[in-house]
Amino acid sequence: MRRIVPIFLVLAAIGFALSLGVHLVTSVGVLWIVGDFLGPLHVGVFIVGAPAMILSNRLTKGHPRKDYWNIALRGCPRWMRRGASIIFGYCWLRMIVFLFLSVNQPKPHGAITAGQLAFFSSGWLAFYAMEFVTLYSFGRIQEDNSRHV
């Protein structure tokens, strides 16, 4: 497990960086430069998410569910936990605003619009951020435990 975590940590960081790039350019209406990233970003969330969920469950085993994120992210510095929470909150707010603004808009047919892609990329941002901090936390806790043995 110790060898696998860094690989998924790097994948989560790359996914987050690419998602941020897609989110920034599509938020200003640019669409033509992001086409090749869509499939891998969408699939990557699940590829990185599976080990992150398994490891977070290991970290929180035997603890109350109400403390899930506090326990799962105990290996992260405070700034990282707060940053992930801010990103997660922003992404949810961004998705809600998109849904609210698109209620009475005509529905486009065919290719995805920049607004729709900004909506998706905000979801990718939230997932990759939470996957990264979860994997980071697990790695740090494992590292601390191996020092004490």
Q: What does this protein structure show overall?
A:
With about 150 residues, the protein is mostly helical. It has 5 helices and no strands. The chain has helices spanning about 5-25, 40-60, 70, 80-100, 115-145. The longest helix is centred in the C-terminal third of the chain and has 34 residues, at about 115-145. The protein is elongated and about 60 Å long. The model has no long low-confidence stretch (mean pLDDT about 85).
What's the gist of this structure?
It is built from 5 helices and no strands.
Oligomer: single chain
- Helix fraction, binned, reads over 70%
User: What is the mean predicted local confidence, pLDDT?
Assistant: 86
What summary fits the major beta sheet? Answer: none
Please mark out the parts with pLDDT under 50 across 5 or more consecutive residues, or reply none.
Answer: none
Question: How would the global form be characterised?
Answer: elongated
The number of domains: 1
Topology as H/E string?
HHHHH
The number of E-state strands comes to 0
Question: What percent of residues are in strands?
Answer: under 5%
How is the secondary structure organized here?
Layout: H1 4-27, H2 38-60, H3 68-72, H4 78-101, H5 114-147
Helix pairs in contact: 1-2, 1-5, 2-5, 4-5
Quickly list its features.
elongated; 5 helices; mainly alpha; 149 residues; 0% strand
